[in-house]
Amino acid sequence: MTWLTAPLAYGFMQRGFVAAVMVGVLCAVIGCYVVLRSMAFIGDAMAHSILPGVAVAYLLKGNLLLGALVAALAVALGIGLFSRPSAVKEDTAIGILFAAALSLGVALISTIRTYAVDLTHILFGNVLGVSTSDLVLTGLLGGGVLLALLVLYRPMLVATFDPVLAATLRLPGRLLRTLLLVLLAVTIVVSMQTVGVGLVAAMLVTPGATAYLLARRLPRMMAWAALIGALSSVCGLYLSFYLNVASGAAIVLVATAMFMLAYLLAPDKGLVFEHLRARRAVTRDECDSDEGH
Amino acid sequence: MQSTDFDQTLSPEEPARLELDKVSVAYGQRQALCDISIHIPHGQCVAVVGPNGAGKSTLFKALVGLLPVQSGTILIHGRPLGHHRDCVAYVPQRDEVDWGFPLTVRDVVVMGRYGRRGWLRGPTKTDRKAVDESLELMGITELAERPIGELSGGQQQRVFVARALAQNPHILLMDEPFTGVDAASRESILRVLDQMHRQEVTVLISTHDLNLASSRFEHVLVLNKRVIAYGSPAEVFTPQTLHAAFGGQALMLGDHLVAVDQCCPPERGGMIQ
Hints:
The structure holds two protein chains of two kinds.
Chain A: H1 2-5, H2 11-36, H3 40-49, H4 51-59, H5 64-82, H6 90-109, H7 115-124, H8 132-151, H9 153-161, H10 163-168, H11 173-195, H12 200-214, H13 218-243, H14 247-265, H15 271-292
Helix pairs in contact in A: 2-8, 2-11, 2-12, 2-13, 3-5, 3-6, 3-12, 4-5, 4-6, 5-11, 7-11, 8-11, 12-13, 12-14, 13-14
Chain B: H1 6-9, E1 16-27, E2 30-41, E3 45-49, H2 56-63, E4 71-76, E5 79-80, E6 88-91, H3 105-110, H4 125-137, H5 153-166, E7 171-175, H6 183-198, E8 202-206, H7 210-216, E9 219-224, E10 226-231, H8 233-236, H9 239-246, E11 250-253, E12 256-259, H10 266-269
Parallel strand pairs in B: 3-8, 3-9, 6-7, 7-8
Antiparallel strand pairs in B: 1-2, 1-4, 4-5, 9-10, 11-12
Helix pairs in contact in B: 4-5, 5-6
């Protein structure tokens, strides 16, 4: 069992585990809404759009997290504005904005001498470089997002499932949507250091999608997603330690493997189960027609 | 509380509880409803009929404030829209939500109680009782813990109606509740109409089934962007009004008038000649 405990001898690995699990759980829980509202593209776009904020903070020698947060909030509110019917469809508008923001970020970062290393860390994360103060900040922001989701559970559920009912109950649908985007922005910024802006979308969508296949009610779906997110983070970090691969990528690959398993084997919604059910139905039909003759 | 004396309920002295005065609604450039003026007394049960695109759904959406009214006024209990939180319940067409959503039947019906008390508090004893009664009334108590994704179309419709009942509405709007549902679901929805009538709830139902409208409803509103006719089935179902509403879809066969209404777009449904 020493292979399990060996990585924990290092302080940077301990902090990495804590950070990865926190981010894994946070992304997975808010990710359930991302999956149910079909917001995967928005999540990805927002993640890439925070790059210029990070770059400016870096150039000004300010706090990277703060720069990212400002940029992410600006993007969240910007998307909120674009969500009203206009000349351009929403996904087109987001596509334009996010590509522009990503380019601006890369252009700014390319003026820095250690360009390649810094860009890699921002894009793909550097979970092993997490400091104790980073951990505290991650815990506070992540805890805040989870608390907000808990308090807003009922209105968010109704606004997600049935916007028409939400409107007849006089729920502020646009405000809730913007609020969700803001919470998403905070989540993405918190995840930047662990999995990077390039892979955070996967952590938002993959555990949520896996949980969707396994659960029949939203609270259970969120619990499954959190478990899958945490497990992916832990397994991914072990893989990263022993195989010497990038940590963010390892975490996402583990999460993807879990999704594939659920896609095949999930009760009710899995491929194997559906196949069996279809076969059973066919057999029954044949029996019925035999009886008819 | 429950009055079985219909005549008293529908007496002309009763003040109109749902009043529309010259209401017009438009989607962008396209005019969907023009100058709709009707007074529907408290506790009346009205079938809303008209061809596709006549503005039936639009009327309902305007009544719950989902669509802005371009001009005119809508008064409920004599007060303009916006003063009513719970008193209007709307049962939308089934295809407007994602039935793959991870929810049970009970979860959906409980949503009907959400607007009542603060959003942060869990369901109270009264809420649970209202939900149980609604499930019972729609005959779906045994489906309560089932995921909504496993339901048939008729069962889905009954869940939506149960949720609206849990809202304890004064006015109940149902958009095409009989389209594509099985006989059992149809009967349980019709049973609810009788129950609503006894509880003096005003009900508006849009339907393509003109037979149903004339046989099971005391009042019919014929709509085609404007109010073509409004009254008892005998008053409303005349060759003139049907021709005005359905145009080419109204058919004269000897002395009999046949209106061929269809729930499907013409390219799929086709007209039965």
